[in-house]
Protein 1
Amino acid sequence: MSTSQASSITARIDRLPPTRTVWHIVLLLSVGGFFEVYDLFQMTYLPSGLVRDGIFHVGANGLFGMSDQGALGAATFAGLFIGEIFLSRFADVVGRRILFTSSLVLYTAASLAMCWQHTALGICLCRLIAGCGAGAELITIGAFLTELVPKAVRGRAFALCFSVSYLAMPVLAFASWRLIPHAPLGLSGWRWVVLLGGSGAVVAGWLQAKLPESPRWLAMRGREREALAVLTSIEQRVEREHGRPLPPPMREAHPVPRAESTTPAPSMWAGGYRRRTWMLIAFNAFLSIGFFGFSQWLPTLLVAQGAAVTKSLWYSFLIAFAFPVSPFIAGGLADRIERKWLIVACALGVALFGTAFAMVGHSPFAVVFGLLVTLCNAVMAGNATAYQAEIFPTQIRGKALGFVHSIGRLTGVASSFLVALLLQHGGPAAVFTLIVASMGIVIVSIGAFGPRTNGRSLEEIAGEAASGVRRIGPSAHAARIQTR
């Protein structure tokens, strides 16, 4: 298979009209995302039930003399760190599809094991293992989705994926509100909540059979015959649905690289990639503090402001509806507003509405400002996932994404205990001071140093960093057109 044939893969994917086949692939990936979100955010709702059962203890009476809720969050983030920095790189070795389904099996199996734990240590160990699977899953979804959808709809594809994935939030919040205060059939409600999430293992085999492997990854590994077979199958289905012949692919200035090439794989620490890597390290470190500092501790923050536990779970259930709604807003904006500026605007919204949330106590206005904070957080997270997956090349996408994401997990471990201390000694106002400061660093890192990505091919975005050229504005667009 010639190099020119392999190089046409990007152009052939990018010229596909967004028909039912394209959105079906997005929905399949979203199913895995649903269980990943459900599993990840259990740490927000389970602690009250664990405390009532005597498994968790408050304050310094918990595991290792620390807050048990903080330990639960730390174990989850530690698992995410391991999954993202070590397991996610296998997506570049064994393929996106295999790691996607294997990760799903791993974290749902750990969740099922957690149902039968009776000690804080056992709970946290299961959360650690589940976090490993969830971390690898998150990175693989980002790489997989980026490589399978046309450049013109990447933002909307991520918005749809997050919309389905975030449906897990109201489902989890509703299940927690209805089950955690009770013990159906003599089994503690929190165990039922965890058990529901473990059903994800059932769909793993089905997803493995339905999802195609990434043609870009196959071509990069030298498996061009398989890559073209997968791509041709997708094209045939899209053409039937489109009702007319597909437009001819445009010539790409930056071809798909091949594994057999004498040119070594790029390093995220060399040339223009180093700038992007450092920018995303700062971004992820403080995004994690701002995002999880609110979402992980929401019921606890409401209780600290005077709400009863049952009322805090009810408020949290209402606020959770912002998660599945937010991607529809993001979908309408993602491919119209440059992604980096949409991230900046959302970070500013988190800072402003978070400050208002801290000032209104447990009144109904807490729901309003909580919804707005959650909405901004969710839109920002969805766009950030798409944005980070776009700016690294195919050869190192899994490894690079895993590394920069993992930095956020380390700060998540620290922030789990830091938020507990701030809440204990300074109240909700101190927590939101931390969140606002974190959002300020997010704004500066992306706004000042992030490249543009909207409407650009993945190879063009990667090639800009590789060449050390950073074009901004209409002149760059004109220059790209002249090369075609």
Protein 2
Amino acid sequence: MTTARPFEIRVPDEVLTDLHDRLRRARLQPDSPRKPSSGMSGDYLRRLVDAWLAFDWRERETWLNGHPQFLADVGDTTLHFVHRRAERADAPVLLVMHGWPHTFALQLALVDALPDVHVVAPSLPGFAFSTPYADGEMSETRLADTMHRLMTEVLGYERYLTYGEDVTANVSDLIAATYPGVAGILATHSHFPNQEQREQTTDASERAFFDTLAAFHGDHGAYGHVQGTRPDTLATALNDSPAGLLAWLAEKLVEWSDTPWRSDGDGGPGGDGDSGGDRGPATVERRISRERILTEATIYWVTQSIRSSFRPYYEGADQPGVIPPTRVPAVVAIQRHESTYPESLARAHYLDLRSFERLDEGGHFTAAEVPEVVAGLVRRLVAEAW
């Protein structure tokens, strides 16, 4: 069995000094004429840059280190992960995986909401403090194998529950469908058929959902196309400019969360009004606070991991392959960004579906946005599967 070794985050002072120097010299521009309604606004980015300069990373670092962290060698990657044990040795066990552009840090709200569960929250290879795969290949099959080995070979768990978001939604499905010892799965990003399977469906609601999805990605999917086709060129710019990195990350953290921003001056990335954190709860940062946005940006900056975080897009791990049906108990709760997802798709994949619902709150980063709601879903799965 591979041994896990304790780890604490300790960013060198000179790295933070260099970050602050670059932020002070940032060459920010006003919005261009006829600016698209979506995307980062100059006003909002200026506010974020100023906030990053005043951000107390050492205080945040101490908070992060309050969650037990470890490193372990799994194949040709060194995985970083949080392993927060419950008081009861026989408590249920949950694997919690992030996607892009978030890191393990954004999943800690769910970890904190589950004191009665052993929770493992890894950094994907090439994200945050985990090293990339040596050969760069980052398929969903490889990620599933790595995560299962972490849970079994490193941590010695014979049974566990699984949860993933974004690119790891596919990984979670694959783990639950493939590996013995997986007791159940929670999905807020429910299973998507691959493109060929989508084209073959004759169900009207399914076809309408896929058409809506395709239209949305046509309007908003440029980031994924660039990350999947020119990852190193983009990463070179973002790795050299903290303001650029912040704009790239914050745009998605805000737009993909369940927020009330609009493009007519409500303060979102594409708006011109005052923005999150300054106008009470009805702001663009009501789900993911400015502190958490800056935490994500700082982790990407100090680890220089933006380039390796693009690997799932370049290697195709963000595209669903053919994943066998899942036969373990499943709880599915559809987050609001996929609110019209047809129940028929879930029932076709999760053959032991114990419950299906549509959430009233929570967007793409569901575990971070509504951790207590997701914790309740975990406990429901525990009651059904553990």
Protein 3
Amino acid sequence: MSTPTSNPSPSSGHGAPERPPVRRGARVFAVVVALVIVGLLLGGLYAFRNMRDQAIANFFAGNKPPPTPVAVAEVRTETVPRFMSAIGTLTAIRQVTVAPEVAGRVVEIAFESGASVAAGAKLIQLNDAIEQAELGALQAQAKLASINLDRARDLRSRQAGPQTNVDQYQAQLDEMNANIRKTQATIAQKLIRAPFGGDLGIRQVNVGDYVGPGNPIVTLTDLSRLFVNFSLPEQALPRLSIGQKVRVLTDAFPGRTFDAVITTVEPQVSTDTRAIKVQATVGNAEGLIRPGMFAHVEVVEPPKPGVLVVPDTAVDYTVYGDSVFVVHAKAGDGGKEALTVARVPVKTGPRHVGIVEILDGLKPGERVVVSGQLKLSEGAAVSIADKNVLVPPAKLPLN
């Protein structure tokens, strides 16, 4: 009896074992398991981030920063000085470039550059030998003319000579005396003296130089007093008067003030600038300021009382406007006083030494921050520092 034989698969000819078919249900299960694992991971990450953010928020909520220490000052009323400011130039009351009136050769220099001289001091001697010789000859001729005149008068008195001789010798004597005075004047012109007392500049000639009329020799300046010339708008005319005090400040001596008084007010207003020229005289006993210097001029006016002022460090100047931080007090935890700040816009006026005028925005007695503003923001908590080195002096000079 024969045994039935099954048909082999096409691959059985190679002798490889048959792979069992993969079921569709197993694949779906694997995908579901992977999705569940990914979901659990994302959920855990989300929960961790929420827990971390909540922990950070709770930490900062329970750990508020300490109040910022600041220096404060009270808004107060002061009697402040008033000035009309201008730009001016210092000029000498007496200044000259010494020069000869006649030509000649320099034979003597009797000064040193930069020296102080008195009025009439000898400066330069030009060669006057020819003029001295001419003077001697003229004096001899004048003497002879005088003798002849006396003899002619004597003869005339005795009716022994004509009157014409007397007249002739008188004319000769007068002519000789005139020539003598002319020569003496020329000799005096060749001796150059200081026309007034002052300080000499740099010598511009040497011994042996030939100088002509008008050639500069040296400058001479009287530094004891100077003029300061400046201009003000025509609206300032009613507020100007002769003898009014003026303060002069220069860049060469910062912080130094020189006192002056108005001595001249130009009677005309410039039609080009509608400004009026003013001249003040400033004392210069120490000789510090010099002609030609640039000057800041402040015409002193009567002081103005009852002006609100704060230290100039309290104002924050920005392109959006000026402002200050005002300190407010309120009840805090445990009944203690808590201090906060608020930014308040203000309108400022003129600035003075250490203070600035407040035209609007503040009231007397309010406290403003004068140091530490860079660390502050609206509503920030503050504490008052023990020392406030920025508070200006209680009194200001009014003159």
Protein 4
Amino acid sequence: MFVTQDIVLRLFFSKKKIINNGSSVPLNASVILAPTHRSRWDGLVITMAMGRRVTNKDCKFMVTNSEMKGIQGWFLKRLGCFSINQLSPSLHTLRYAIDLIVKGEQLVVFPEGKINKYGKKLVLREGLYRLARLATKKTESIIIIPIGIAYSRVSPKFRSEFCLSLGKPIVMKDFLNFNIKEFNEFLNERIINEEKLALKNVGR
């Protein structure tokens, strides 16, 4: 945290802003963070906004296998990331993710499934909803927080700005009658609304 938040983020970005739009979460709730994914900086930004210093909980990131290779993979693992095969997720990985949710940890899942640099409209992946549904069999206190992240430049440069907007939490037990398509359409609208607010705050 000292290296990434107090040195790297502070030196690289000239301005950092966090907007909280009613994102009040019960202390005993299991939290799934659902952010837009526009840059490799997103993980550090989310950790600064919702990590241990703020919530007393670490952020655990679900990322693709390709992102966990080489030096980047070594670094990501130490930031709390674990990989999943999107085409054929293993039972071990699914159990691990569900256990994190049930234990009240903060699981970060990028619903778009990959970096969507220019914010093109994508069909959200099904993983977040499936995990949340499975976890509701063990706990009902699951909260999903839609998050919009924006940078003053499409590809963040030295002394750029960023803004992160936290939306009103979604209580998973209120959406168990939704199918995947209905829920993803609802979630997509929520995270895009938060991103629009974040974009406005960085002048885009």
